[in-house]
Design a protein that fits this description.
The chain contains 13 helices and seven strands. It is of the alpha/beta class and 277 residues long. It starts with a helix and ends with a strand. The structure holds S-adenosylmethionine (SAM).
């Protein structure tokens, strides 16, 4: 597979997401409860995925547009019930919002995001411009609220991916280059947000234990296959992919598995509320 094909491939499957990562849309429940939604609000949800997170606040507002670059996720998002709110879902690469005049219209009361910025902001060449575009797209006085993975998020997962890929013949530089996650500290994220004009009202980094789904629903293996699909594609055959996953699960099982068989990782949540003055 060429680099271009890999970039264009949709690595997200709603079925796998529902089975192995059904807890993700709830990461930001506490954050959502702290936001003062108005029935007239127009909200842009960045990296909306299958719409489950969007549905957690849509009934409280007038209109939500969800944007995500996965056609599979957007197709599912279009089928959900949003409790009466007007909704629209579009396939958009959020690293390039400047190409979307209907998003960049300065008309959003709020911009939201859950569990997406550690993917979207990975690309350092578009990191600041993405935040700057969000700032420009909002009304003055608007609220930008999001949760993402931050510094210290499941470091053992990242290490095991690197080890398994290298031990299956992938050069370390190639594995590093394709690592899809960016986990900033709260200090650095605050600086970046302020540098594009936001006033940061709240930012906190909170590492916490996170229970994965049962092994019947995918568990650790399903989770690794879902979030690491892009990295696993560096291996040419299904046999090599299966072998790498098996190796990772063996390496991780002591640190992740409790006495009752449940599997846990460390989720470092980076939670933020910022205002456009
Ligand atoms: C873990 S899912 C979170 C989905 C949803 N927000 C939720 O809470 O369930 C991460 C999402 O980020 C999306 N994503 C990653 N990079 C993106 C990009 N450059 N532009 C738009 N969406 C992106 C993926 O397609 C995926 O749906």
């Amino acid at each position: 597979m060429t680099e271009t094909q890999r970039v264009q491939k949709d690595y997200w499957s709603t079925e796998t997401y529902e089975a192995a990562a059904s807890f993700v849309p709830h990461f930001a429940d506490t954050l959502v409860q702290s936001i003062d939604f108005k029935s007239t609000d127009r909200v842009l949800d960045i990296g909306c995925g299958d719409g489950k997170f969007t549905a957690s606040f849509a009934p409280m507002v007038e209109y939500v547009m969800g944007v995500d670059y996965s056609p599979s996720m957007i197709n599912t998002a279009k089928t959900l019930d949003y409790g009466g709110a007007e909704t629209e879902f579009r396939v958009v690469d959020c690293r390039h919002l400047e190409k979307e005049p209907e998003i960049m219209n300065g008309n959003w009361d709020k911009v939201s995001s859950n569990a997406a910025f550690h993917w979207i902001l990975k690309d350092s060449s578009t990191r600041l411009s993405t935040l700057e575009n969000i700032f420009k797209s909002m009304k003055p006085g608007g609220t930008f609220f999001f949760e993402m993975c931050g510094h210290g998020n499941a470091p053992e997962k990242l290490t095991s991916f690197m080890f398994a890929l290298v031990s299956h013949g992938v050069p370390i530089e190639k594995a590093e280059a394709l690592c899809p996650w960016y986990y900033p500290s709260d200090v650095h994220m605050k600086e970046m947000l302020e540098s594009v004009g936001f006033q940061v009202k709240q930012i906190e980094l909170n590492p916490q234990p996170l229970q994965l789904t049962s092994t019947d629903n995918g568990g650790l293996e399903g989770f690794l296959r879902l979030i690491g699909a892009q990295m696993l594609d560096l291996l040419e055959t299904e046999e090599k992919k299966d072998s790498a996953i098996e190796q990772m699960c063996r390496m991780l099982r002591y640190g992740t598995t409790r006495e009752d068989g449940s599997q846990w990782i460390t989720y470092a949540s980076l939670r933020c509320v910022a205002i456009k003055p």
